[in-house]
Design brief:
Oligomer: single chain
Number of helices: 13
Number of domains: 2
Distance between the termini: 42 Å
Radius of gyration: 23 Å
CATH class of the largest domain: Alpha Beta
CATH superfamily of the largest domain: Endonuclease Chain A
CATH topology of the largest domain: Endonuclease, Chain A
Largest sheet: 8 strands, mixed
Helix content: 40-55%
Strand content: 5-15%
Length: about 280
């Protein structure tokens, strides 16, 4: 968990404690507040000590139970600040993958240049429907989330229309391992590689592959997407990180630049894709 996120969660916890101890009806103990809310008192203390993240309903209930319903909007603003940085998959996928795709599409719409690095998957921006379907299906199984696979696939494929928008640029880098990872059937992966090969003629797309044999200046760690140097979205197993502070975005951009130095493009990239195709077939 990021230090900035934990600091923000601790700050929210302090505010919750303040509301509990200074409410208009007098100071409430943790067990007293827990009884009013129908919660175990341990949840009250976990929220106050920054060891558990409240949801919107928790904060609304807290404000009302402490006699300060007017504080609910302030608490919700704190929560939005938290979620703008660490968006847990459990929360995001409560209603399936489609809402997550819609949120990403909104960011794409306001972005002119998108920088992508992926080390183990073909990026969603260039996935075939069958490849995307395999990815969504397995992720839903892992997260035990609602399976709205077909809606999510359609949303992802619609977003790919931006590849043909002359006002946008997509600068995509991939580790060679992403071309060979059997996260789907061999037939689906073969079709996906055909799709990649067809992208090299688009003037809105720069496709670079970092071969296994390349000398690296930085190790090819987790995937991330940079939106116009204003926002980075990086994925981990438990959450999606939305990073918008200038210094951190600059670190990701330097990382992307170092990875790009090891990449091959054009005919050389097609050759790496072709080798992966031969390995499958």
């Amino acid at each position: 968990m990021s230090t900035d996120f934990q600091k923000a969660r601790n700050a929210l916890g302090l505010r919750l404690r303040e509301l509990r101890t200074t409410g208009p009806g007098g100071r409430l103990t943790g067990p007293q507040l827990g009884e009013r809310l129908g919660w175990p008192h341990s949840k009250v203390y976990k929220l106050e000590n920054g060891r558990q993240t409240a949801n919107a309903a928790d904060l609304q209930a807290w404000a009302e139970a402490t006699g300060r319903p007017d504080a609910a909007a302030e608490l919700q603003a704190h929560l939005r600040g938290l979620e703008s940085h660490v968006r847990s998959w459990r929360r995001q996928l409560a209603k399936g993958h489609r809402p997550v795709q819609d949120a990403i599409t909104a960011e794409h719409a306001r972005t002119t240049t998108l920088y992508i690095w992926e080390n183990s998957l073909v990026p969603g921006m260039v996935q075939t429907p069958d490849y995307a379907r395999a990815v969504f299906t397995r992720h839903a199984q892992l997260m035990r989330s609602p399976k709205d696979t077909e809606e999510a696939v359609r949303a992802r494929v619609r977003r790919q229309e931006a590849l043909y928008d002359s006002g946008k640029r997509h600068r995509i880098l991939m580790w060679e391992g992403a071309l060979r990872a059997l996260v789907c059937s061999p037939a689906v992966l073969a079709a996906q590689l055909d799709r990649l090969a067809s992208l090299t003629g688009l003037d809105t797309v720069e496709l670079g592959i970092v071969p296994f044999t390349a000398a690296l200046k930085i190790h090819p760690a987790n995937g991330f997407w940079i939106y116009d140097d204003r926002l980075v979205i990086a994925e981990d197993w438990h959450a999606e990180l939305w990073i918008d502070d200038t210094d951190s975005v600059a670190v990701y951009r330097r990382t992307w630049n170092l990875l790009r130095e090891a990449a091959v493009f054009g005919i050389d990239a097609q050759r790496v894709v072709s080798q992966a195709q031969k390995a499958i077939r």
